[in-house]
Each structure stands twice: as C-alpha cells, then as structure tokens.
C-alpha cells in the first residue's frame, strides 16, 4: 500500500459581499499585493479588492490578465511581481486568471496566494495546480505546485450576478468529481495530491455529488433571478470547495481526459466552457463503466435541466469524423493523462466507442422525453 495524502488551502471564506473584506482576511499575509484581473473583472470586483486591501494598509499594484493561462503570460506577470517587490499574489476572476495567479506565486519566493473567483464555474480555485494552455488555447499540461493557495474568497453575491451558464458549468465540473474519484480509488491510483485517497477526500467527493443533486436545480433558478439563497450557497461550496478537495485528493479519471482531448479539435467546440465539455466526458466515462440505464439517465436528466450539452451535436461536433474522434481519444490516452487512473486498460477504440454510445444513449433519452 502507498501513502495516503490529503491537501487543501489554508482558509476558505464564503458569503455575501465578502470581497469587501478581502483585506481583513489577508492582512497578516503580506504588505504589497499584485492584483491580477481581466478588464471586465477589474470593474466588477478588482477595484473593490484593492480598496479593501488599502484599508488594511496593504499596498496594491494591478495588472490586466490577457486571457490565456499560458507559460508566456505567467512569465510576463512573474517579472512584474518581482520588479514591484510583491509578496502577495491576488487572482480575481475566472479559472484561467486564477491558474495564472497560482503559477506566478510559485515563482515568487516567499509570496502568498489569494484566490477570488467571480464565478463558481470550475473547481480550480482551491487546488495546488494550474491547467496550462498554449497561447492559442490548446491544452498543454498540468503544472503542480508545492502548496495550495493560502486564502480563497467566494463572494456569493457576485456569483449570483454572473450568467447562470457559469454556475451550470461548475455543477457539471463538480458532478465529475465522485464519478472520477471512485474509479481512481478502485484503481488504487495516486491522486494529484501525490498519494492515495484518504477517507476524508472520498467522503468529501461523495458529499459533493449528493449536494449537487439536492440543490443544483434550485441554485440554477436562484442564479437566474440573481439572488443568493440557501441552495445557491450550497452549490457555490460544492462547486468550489467540495469538488476542489475531492478531485485533488482522490483523483481524476476519464471524464477530464476526454475534456483535454477535445482541445485538439478546431471549430465551435472551443466556445464551450470547461464544465460543458466535462459533462460529455462524464457521460462517456459512465458508459465505459457499464453503468445502468437508470444511473446514466439520472445524469442526462440533470444536465438537460441545467441546459448542458449531452450529445456531440450539443457540443457542435455533429460533423465530427471518425478520425476526429480518434484524435480526441488518443489525446485523452497520452502518457500522464488522468485516463490512466481508470481501473482498466483502455484503447483509443474503447474511448471512441464510449463517446459514440453516450451520444446515442443521450439522443434516445431526449427523444423519449420530448427534449429533442
């Protein structure tokens, strides 16, 4: 048996208007902050973060994120942080901004990292890793760090004001957590935390899924009205904290590998969010696991109600050729991919067959239920 490992951020804070308390929670972490946000997020939350830091006598300099979590962008901001003498790296915005902030902190000795998401669209905020893309947006690699962010601040009011599509995407990303974790645990695979899953991580991953099915649809409707409700708060936590801890300390599997495989294709699929692509990956994994019709349809039903893609056509891939799907499958099976955490040996043919079958099963479900 190998070693069990569980990792997590130092502190997680969630609530209404909590972004205005960023300085209160970060005041003992450093004296000069480099705040990273894109142009839109600067107006939405970035300036509020800077004001809050100033109230606690933390000097701040800002930089505008250029849109891609690439090695070039990370290196550009590292130079800014070092020239400014920043000892606190603050990322405000979406997943790629946050992954960039983590990448910058890793190369600024002694700096701490504060992560302030403006959506609950992925489980990236809590993790000690970044997903690195090329400047053109093609998945390149996972970059792992020696520690998780020091502080996560989730402002549920800002998240309630974001487009509901982002919350639905976060639910889809989080719904993969237990589906993938249980396979990685079965395979006795090392998680991204660097060891086997703990009881705690598995329990968190399972509770994540339970919470999503219990509150996901109510939270989605709350988001449509831009109101913070108990259901929304539950889903913000499930999408971010539960899913983040669950995937990182229990393991990913085929669903995320298929998502990464999709990045090799061209066309409208690149307008789909991370979670939307993960949703189809999850259905493909469930198919490959030989799950029952009832279990498969439980996920298809949930995704459909959240207006998430369940077929290749929904992903703008109705014209995808056999060769295209084979490229996706081969990319999903490259060395180091999370697909190798499945408790069986897979071929590209297996993955393509699972994707086609998942597509067909979901089409049949939509037709049966008048959703086609």
UniProtKB/TrEMBL annotation:
CC per GO annotation: cytosol
Keywords for this protein: Metal-binding, NAD, Oxidoreductase, Zinc
Residues of the Alcohol dehydrogenase iron-type/glycerol dehydrogenase GldA domain: 9-155
Cofactor note: Binds 1 zinc ion per subunit.
Pathway, per record: Polyol metabolism; glycerol fermentation; glycerone phosphate from glycerol (oxidative route): step 1/2
Positions of glycerol binding: 123, 173, 256, 274
Reported cofactor(s): Zn(2+)
SUPFAM superfamilies: Dehydroquinate synthase-like
EC number(s) per entry: 1.1.1.6
UniProt-recorded Gene Ontology molecular function terms: glycerol dehydrogenase (NAD+) activity; metal ion binding
Residues at which NAD(+) binds: 38, 95-99, 118-121, 127, 129, 133
Binding site for Zn(2+): 274
Catalytic activity: glycerol + NAD(+) = dihydroxyacetone + NADH + H(+)
Family (UniProt): Belongs to the iron-containing alcohol dehydrogenase family.
NCBIfam families: PRK09423.1
The protein's name: Glycerol dehydrogenase
Upper lineage: Bacteria, Bacillati, Bacillota, Bacilli, Bacillales
